[in-house]
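Notes from hallway chat w/ T.B., transcribed later so I don't forget. T.B. wanted the structure written out for a chain they're using in a teaching module, and asked if we could keep both sequence and structure tokens in one place. Agreed to drop them here.
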Amino acid sequence: MNNYPPILKPAELAESRLIDAILDGSFPFDSMLPPERELATQLGVTRPTLREALQRMARDGWIEIHQGKSTRVCNPWQEGNLAVLEHLANHSEHYYPQFVEHLLTVRILLAPAFFQAAVQNNRDSVMELFTTIPDPETDARSFAAFDWNVLKKMSILSGNPVFTLILNGFSKMYLILAEKYFEQAEARIHSWGFYRDIQQAAKVADDKRIYEICQKVMQESIRYWKSSGK
């Protein structure tokens, strides 16, 4: 199995280039895109290909299309949806300094609630999920994959599908950032202890303790991220 990046289709490539141009300020927020013919020439694509890219971008909140009028560049931070995060995973050079901390703050608000609900509703399944906790010596990519699997499964076990739908919007970005985070041995040890603590609290069905453990560890993860210098 190779690790080569996927080959983008023409519309995907055009979309990626336009998003890059929006994020680097070439097409500022609330400005108007050039006429379709001109923009297609700039991007080196056909007009039907450009239209496909623009429709995808409008769906996700990057641009606003009005028939017979110029296409407006939106502010994706204010007008976009969760699909914006998926695109940002491929444009990490445009993160602003507090971006990852904001993501981690959102996790603090969500994770304790669905961890607690998972234990309340499906304690046996939670116990099974934590039967194979990775050793702290595990490589960063594998540790990140396990961590994501825990979050995803716990959101499902909570019984509230909205938690899972929100998490799915973070999936690609989460795995990229988590791998960087778990390059620190201290971060892997920290999360290993977290998994063990959750396992022990689940054994005695202490859902209040589950909430407290999860909230504390999620808060501490911001400190570990800052110390990593990523």
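Follow-up for T.B.: The longest strand covers residues 63-64. Might be a good example for the class.
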